[in-house]
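Input (structure):
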């Protein structure tokens, strides 16, 4: 017997066909798979269709292999179309808490399912099969209260004799009219959420999963930083790199959704632009990026910062214009927000100090002659030290001359002193640092070279 992946139909293809069938091909909808959503329950609705996570995709794949498992996919497609046809997307959260968002989303789910059930009469009994009153009654805490409310709203009667379920039924009945805005749904759900909060229920948003499973995570209804992170996590791969495809698995097409500002109409269009990523060649995908440990990366950045020897800050006037700050200033002006005028970058040069540690071989074997020559290893060490000392002293004198060029009187004396002191160090054994412009390391190296015994 073959595996499920070989013979079972693919959930994304089945959902794509159901969306086209139930929606009447009014608009082109897509079904994507984001395998980086590991452990994230449910799926996300986007303005262009839906995106499945790895856990949801595996659950649907197992359900399709079983008899009668396709009914949940039909309910999922009906719920997605209900949101896209009747829900206002990306509403402002404001100061709502997580529990209020969950209650308002539950009322909105029931409202759009009733609207879609009127348009497609066969959808209502199919959605009713997804609710299990016994399961809802067995749950405890805030999850159990929300499950009992969802089950009572679907059956349109208070199955549990709960006061919160009765309030939810009355709220949805008031919303069951034409021309209902999302503000009305918010006003209807806020008192119920307040009653739940007074019962001291603890609501953990990170562990909350919408029930039943055919419903989405409602991230498309809200527009704030947290909801946008969920949407972008569903449609792009920002937090976790994609796992490499298996040898017998074709690479999935990735899609990225972005908002757009229409300058001509002066309107903000959320989720208006979709970008399809083209698959790169296998040779490019096979190139692995070298990653260093955090300690090595931090040391590299520190060395690079010392090598540049610059500090920078932003001001109203400076050396160059920072493009990001200039764009932010233009956006603030267009939105009638007081902008930040510090758009110029100012860079300050400063001196850096380094310590050099040299390890020399001073063992007896360093006096051995190199084969074919009359020089020893110690001779080459002395020569290398002499070159290094001269290089450090020359670099120090160059920096001092550059710094003193702004004061000609004192700079000329310093240069003469440096040259005469260096010449004196080569003629006689150094007894003290020759000059303030010659490094102490160079003077110490010259002293060590002078005290080395001559080569035999």
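Output (sequence):
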């Amino acid at each position: 017997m073959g595996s499920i992946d070989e013979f079972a139909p693919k959930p994304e293809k089945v959902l794509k066909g159901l969306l086209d069938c139930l929606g009447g091909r009014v608009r082109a909808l897509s079904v994507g798979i984001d395998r980086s959503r590991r452990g994230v329950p449910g799926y996300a609705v986007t303005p262009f269709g839906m995106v499945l996570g790895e856990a949801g995709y595996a659950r649907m794949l197992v359900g399709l292999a079983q008899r009668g498992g396709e009914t949940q996919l039909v309910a999922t497609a009906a719920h997605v179309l209900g949101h896209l046809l009747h829900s206002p997307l990306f509403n402002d959260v404001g100061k709502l808490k997580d529990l209020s968002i969950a209650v308002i989303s539950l009322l909105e789910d029931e409202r759009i399912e009733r609207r879609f059930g009127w348009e497609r009469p066969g959808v209502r009994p199919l959605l009713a099969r997804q609710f299990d009153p016994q399961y809802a009654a067995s749950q405890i805490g805030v999850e159990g209260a929300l499950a009992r409310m969802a089950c009572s709203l679907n059956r349109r009667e208070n199955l549990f004799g709960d006061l919160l379920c009765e309030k939810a039924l009355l709220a949805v009945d008031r919303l069951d009219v034409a021309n209902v805005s999302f503000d009305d749904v918010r006003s209807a759900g806020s008192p119920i959420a307040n009653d739940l909060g007074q019962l001291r229920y603890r609501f953990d948003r990170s562990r909350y999963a919408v029930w039943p499973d055919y419903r989405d995570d409602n991230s498309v209804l809200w527009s704030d930083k947290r909801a946008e992170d969920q949407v972008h996590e569903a449609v792009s791969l920002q937090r976790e790199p994609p796992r490499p495809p298996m040898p017998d698995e074709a690479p999935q097409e990735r899609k990225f959704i972005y908002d757009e500002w229409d300058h001509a109409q002066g309107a903000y269009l959320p989720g208006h632009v979709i970008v399809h990523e083209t698959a790169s060649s296998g040779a490019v995908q096979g190139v692995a990026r070298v990653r260093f440990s955090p300690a090595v990366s931090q040391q590299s950045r520190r060395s690079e910062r010392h090598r540049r020897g610059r500090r920078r800050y932003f001001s109203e006037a400076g050396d160059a214009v920072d493009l990001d700050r200039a764009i932010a200033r233009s956006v603030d002006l267009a939105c009638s927000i007081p902008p930040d005028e510090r758009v110029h970058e100012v860079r300050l040069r400063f001196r850096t100090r380094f310590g050099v540690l040299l390890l020399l071989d001073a063992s007896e074997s360093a006096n051995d002659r190199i084969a074919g020559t009359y020089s020893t290893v110690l001779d080459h060490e002395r020569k290398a030290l002499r070159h290094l000392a001269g290089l450090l002293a020359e670099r120090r004198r160059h920096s001092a001359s550059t710094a003193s060029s702004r004061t000609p009187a004192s700079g000329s004396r310093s240069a003469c002193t440096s040259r005469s002191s260096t010449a004196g160090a080569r003629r006689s054994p150094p007894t003290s640092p020759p000059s303030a412009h010659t490094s102490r390391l160079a003077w110490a190296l010259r002293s060590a070279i002078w005290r080395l015994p001559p080569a035999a």
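Notes: Residues 282-288, 406-427 have pLDDT under 50 and may be disordered. Strands lie at 30-34, 43-46, 49-53, 91-92, 222-223, 255-262, 267-276, 310-315, 320-321, 344-349.
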